[in-house]
Every structure is written in structure tokens, then in C-alpha cells.
Give the backbone structure.
Amino acid sequence: MEFAKRLQPLQSNVFADMDKAKAAALAAGREIIDLSLGSSDLPAEAHVIEAIAQSLYDPSTHGYLLFHGTKSFRQAAANWYENKFGIKVDPETEVLPLIGSQEGTAHLPLAVLNPGDFALLLDPGYPSHMGGVYLASGQIYAMPLLEENNFLPVFNDIPAPVVAQSRMMVLSYPHNPTAAIATLEFFQEAVAFCQQHNIVLVHDFPYVDLVFPEDEGNNHAHTPSLVPSILQADPDKSISIEFFTLSKSYNMGGFRIGYAIGNPELIRALRQVKAAVDFNQYRGILNGAIAALTGSQIGVEKGVAIFRQRRDTFINALHRIGWYVPTPKATMYIWAKLPANCSLNSQEFCIQLVKQTGVAASPGSGFGKSGEGYVRFALVHEPTILETAVERIAEFLNSLS
């Protein structure tokens, strides 16, 4: 059987290899501490679950849900955004519900790119950003993120012929996997660059709330934001679209609910692609999302505090064993440069680590060429388990010396 050439770049997946390594370690009797996946272990809030539960008994929620039936959710998302960033949003033309932000970022290239067009992507970056471009038969130019540049791309380094063929740039800050954050000034530079070259500017924003303020007692989870929105740099929404998810702030990853806010033409184009692929998800999930966005934000604040404690626990434990990594200001990840005396590449390191200790991490190479030399740990366990993980990591590092 012959398949489309666009599938060829999707066949290699370092995370599939890691999944095999985890399964083999489990089969060998290892107790797995999985720090490789950024899926929150915290529960959704009770008022969110209640809204979904009550919907189950309403027969009007049991049918197909078309765009106009999502009006209440779109209004809630627009109000949430306006409260957080102070920019007006039209829920009719500038908001689109999504089955998670990943769906949106993967489908948008189908609306923006013609075969052969370039997309400018972060390297390292989130894998679905690459997958969507490949499915659209586009080309990828990887913008290297280097520690000396605070893991921000340098737009002037992009070759002029690539810029001329580029139709889309994808940013994502706070960043997965490096946990870097960006300033409003950086976003203004990105907007100016994309306006100059007629490039659609995409910002994937799942970690909008998972930011750790300098003052530990002041979390500001709802208003105002501690990190900028791309639309603050492009308030007219001239070329920008931003993707949000309820997976991280509200622990609703399994419910698959997100949304896009931005330029009306981009929203309309993405809606056309979406209409050809799916209807919307179950109305009850949207009712839960409305409850999350409009209800008490104490759960968000608690989540930030929990991940901050986990970050500090893990970082301090790594420092105690002599593995010095910087303390991230955001996200649920630790981006750790491999120890200087380690001769393994990132994938070898992670495969051997889980094989010998049961601790699973993500190799930096899985996020792009510039991720080589790093590993990513997801802080998705309680502090005591994180301490145990670092003890096992210490044993593994000692075995390498």
C-alpha cells in the first residue's frame, strides 16, 4: 500500500522510542516515575466537574454542536481574555473553540501555507507545530533557541530567501521545553518583523497562568497576567492569532478544550478547516470550561503554588547531587543541560536512565536539533516522589563516572 509523502517526516518520533523504553523497564520490574509527559496530575476543580455532570442529564446537550451553539463559551473566553490583558475581543469573529490548542496549531498551517511555503518554528519546540506544517506540505525553517540568547530566536539570522518564502511564524512563551519567558518588547519586535514581511504570527500560549512571581505570596493567577500576550504587541490583531488551552491552568487536559483568539480572517480560515474535519466537542465540556473561566480562580492560584513547590524541591535536590541547572520562572518543566562528564546523547541518556532506574525523562533531541544536550523533566508528581527520582538519578550519574 502506498501512502502520501507528507507522512514520511512524521514516521520518526523519539517519544515513541521512549515509550518503548518505559514499557521495557516496566516489564523488567522497574517502578516507573514518569517525568517525561507534561500532563498535569492535579484534578479539575469541583465546580467544573459539577457543570459537566449536570450537563449529562440535559438531553439538549446530546446532539451535534455547531459554531453558533458555542456562543456562551466564546463569550466567556473573550471576557476572560479582556479581564487578563485589557484588550477587547469580539466573540463572534475573533474567538474559535478548539479541541485543545494542539488541534488549532496543527490545523492552522492547512489554512495558511501552500506547498513549499516556509514556516518559521522554534528549535527546540513543541512537536505538533512541526507536524502541522508537514501535513500542509510546507517547509520548516528552525529558529535555534540558544542559552546565550535567553532561548529567544534571533530574527535577523533568518536567511533572506527563507524570509521571502515564509508565510507563518510560530512562537510559544512561556516555552516548552526550555521554560523560557519572553518580554513584551520581544513580541513587539516579532510583530514588526512579521508585519514587514507579511507573515502570519502564531503564539501558542498554554502556560499563560503557570508563571512563578518573584514574590512567593502574590500569585496573581487571574488578573493581571505576569507574562505578555502577543495581542498586546498587536492590539489591532493585524497579523496575529493566539492559542489557549484549559489543560494546564484548569487541569482539563483529558477533556480536550481550548480556543483561539486573534485576527478575524485567520479565525475564519481556521474555522473553515475545522468545519471540514469535525464538529465541536460535547456541549457539557464547554459548560465545564465556562465554569472554569468564569468561576473562582483559587484553583489556578493553588496549582501555581504547587508547581512552584515542586520546582524548588526538584531544583534543590539536583543541586545537592551536583547537577546545577537554572531555576525556571514558568511552566511545569525543568530544562537541564546534561552534565559535563556525560558522554551520552540526550536520547541515550533517557533510555539508559529509565532502563536502570525507572525514572523517565524526555530527551531534548525530541524537540528539535537545538535541544540536543538537554533533557526535560516534567514536575507531575508530589515532592516526595520527585526527591526519590533525584536519588535514583544520582545513582545513575555515579554509574556513568
